[in-house]
């Protein structure tokens, strides 16, 4: 007796699957209903649910994942992005910055430094913590101080951070801080700014009146 082959009820034609993937990457902002409608105009019949199923199989089921796929395709294949694709990517980067999301590529690419008020100890006074986080590896370095100023912020880098990267045979390329006076000032008169210049470390500052932009440190401190 011959055995019947299983019927793959939900199997999608390869040409449809490819069309769904292509449009997801070419226009990552489109939702599943819009994709279904656009493909129907081209003669591909697939329901919104079918679109989502294909997205799930190829890790394209969220806007962020589709954006990531577009960026990867651009980098790997060297394709020229359209004005619309460029605008979508730029808008996404701005939104990431606004919500404290950070673009990072390897350890040392970007570090985040912040000052955290620990509390008051009788006989000692105010206690502050200088915190540094490597945004790629999420390695955290911290040191306690009895004050906060530019010299203290620079000491944190000199005493803790740069020795750590030296041990890993890596360089710290860029650092993100808020606009506190311990981090910002006139370079020639500011110890922290001078230290960054000497060590050739780029400095990115959070948006004014938006400390949450330095979200990785804020989440670590739970502030």
From TrEMBL:
<dbReference type="InterPro" id="IPR036397">
    <property type="entry name" value="RNaseH_sf"/>
</dbReference>
<protein>
    <submittedName>
        <fullName>DDE-type integrase/transposase/recombinase</fullName>
    </submittedName>
</protein>
<dbReference type="GO" id="GO:0015074">
    <property type="term" value="P:DNA integration"/>
</dbReference>
<dbReference type="InterPro" id="IPR012337">
    <property type="entry name" value="RNaseH-like_sf"/>
</dbReference>
<dbReference type="InterPro" id="IPR001584">
    <property type="entry name" value="Integrase_cat-core"/>
</dbReference>
<dbReference type="GO" id="GO:0003676">
    <property type="term" value="F:nucleic acid binding"/>
</dbReference>
<feature type="domain" description="Integrase catalytic">
    <location>
        <begin position="102"/>
        <end position="223"/>
    </location>
</feature>
């Amino acid at each position: 007796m011959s055995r019947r082959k299983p019927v793959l009820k939900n199997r999608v034609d390869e040409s449809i699957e490819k069309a769904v993937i292509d449009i997801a990457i070419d226009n990552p902002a489109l939702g599943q209903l819009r994709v279904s409608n656009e493909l129907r105009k081209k003669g591909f019949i697939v329901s919104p649910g079918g679109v989502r199923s294909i997205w799930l199989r190829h890790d394209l089921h969220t806007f962020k994942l589709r954006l990531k796929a577009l960026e990867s395709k651009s980098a790997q294949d060297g394709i020229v992005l359209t004005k619309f694709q460029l605008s979508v990517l730029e808008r996404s980067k701005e939104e990431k910055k606004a919500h404290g999301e950070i673009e990072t590529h390897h350890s040392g690419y970007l570090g985040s430094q912040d000052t955290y008020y620990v509390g008051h100890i009788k006989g000692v006074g105010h206690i502050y913590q200088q915190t540094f986080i490597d945004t790629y590896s999420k390695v955290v370095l911290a040191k306690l101080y009895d004050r906060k100023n530019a010299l203290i912020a620079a000491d944190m880098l000199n005493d803790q951070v740069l020795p750590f990267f030296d041990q890993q045979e890596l360089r710290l390329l860029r650092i993100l801080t808020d606009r506190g006076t311990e981090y910002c000032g006139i370079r020639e008169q500011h110890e922290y700014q001078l230290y960054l210049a000497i060590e050739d470390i780029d400095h990115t500052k959070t948006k004014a009146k938006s400390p949450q932009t330095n979200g990785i440190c804020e989440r670590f401190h739970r502030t």
